[in-house]
Amino acid sequence: MPEYDLIIVGAGTSGMPCAIESVAAGAKVCVIEQSDRPGGTLHVSLGQMSGAGTHLQANAGIADDALAHLADIERINGGTARRDLLQQTVPRQGSTIDWLMDNGFDMDPSCPAILHLHEAYTTARTYWGINGGLSVLKVVQPLFENAMAQPNASMRYNTHATALLTEGGKVTGLCVESRGAQEEITAKAVVLATGGYGGNARMFKRIAGRPLVTAALATSTGTGIEMGQAVGGRLVGADKYLPTYAGIPQNAGEETVLWRQMPALTPQQRQPWELHLASDGRRFVREDTPSVDEREHALLALPDLQFWCVFSDAIQRAAPPLLAGWTAEELQDAWSNRPDFVTADDPQTLALATGMDPTHLANSLTAYAAACNGDALDTMGRKHCPMPIAGSGLRAIRMHGMVLKTPAGLDVTERLEVRGDDGIVPGLYAVGEAMGGAALSGQGFVSGMSVTPALTLGRWLGTELGRSLSSHSRLGQQI
Prior knowledge:
Distance between the termini: 25 Å
Number of helices: 14
Strand content: 15-25%
Helix content: 25-40%
Radius of gyration: 24 Å
């Protein structure tokens, strides 16, 4: 039975840096990855990061520090995140950005910036690479592969973790399966860096009570979270679910959204020409509100997390593209064949095709037309009212609240030890999305507070565990 100082389950955004640092500290490390490659959600992530006090900020003359960053985070999420965990990661995130830059990160030249895809910071401290998450992977993967080539490291791809081993209440290793063969691997500690459950419709429905529409990888199955629960770890954050506003499934009736096909719904980038109507035909949000958080919470209040984006042929000709990431062939096919892309000659026909109440739909269109024509103020307080939605060519696209980062995860101490109702689960740690996106973002989406904490806390935990669990350490025990 193989024995290690540390097993890291998952070679993604947090698992790779955890492995890099623990191997460098001298620990005997085994990394388990269910897919055939490292990187996890970095393959689909936009790779937004945040950090205060970076060299890039200093070069741009931007004064910033961790206290200001923390205050901005708590302003955005209303204080719904774990302050003790924020105090672990936020002061270190600037150094993470500098670490990436020192290792050749291809930073977008517009960074640092204030980004409006999420509720915006007051200071330019958001960063991203030219190729999104792949830019992060381009830096971290060679460092990870070099670590895995060391004598004290072992890498196992295409290997599924199936259960944690315990003895006397302490986690002592891992059961794995590869190519039909099962094996037990023992270690002084196990780190769950397995990501969230955005690719697991069953688990998402159980935790969120909502159907899954997702941009997450299929490998985001929540396995690590469920394994941690099985040995006494407590699930937290389920009450902080908030949908991303909003996506269109790759195919009607399916659950997967492609990031490149996301509609342009951010007013700071493209002012809306459309109306957003709930399933009954009523407006539920001010479409041009500058607050992303306001739109997301309005969507959360809809039982089905769905709305119709309604416009006209005239608007489609005059407005900036709503679906700039779609190819001409994809759009032609969607309008010709998909039930969630609807065309109609009049409001009555549109209501029949979409299931909206004809009276509510007509009232929404009429009231908005009055605002466009200057006859009345918009009923939702909208300021950008360029053109009534009228004429013979009406169009509607069904859009869904969606998920990439899942909110619930294993409860951890500020030192990332998994804990349950009976206290700390000895020998078990969680990092990244395995401890839940809500731990650091609360009930909100905070720019750069997924990728950066995963890298930052992964590195920190790897260093701490590597030093304390190393076969050469006099301690050889938990941090």
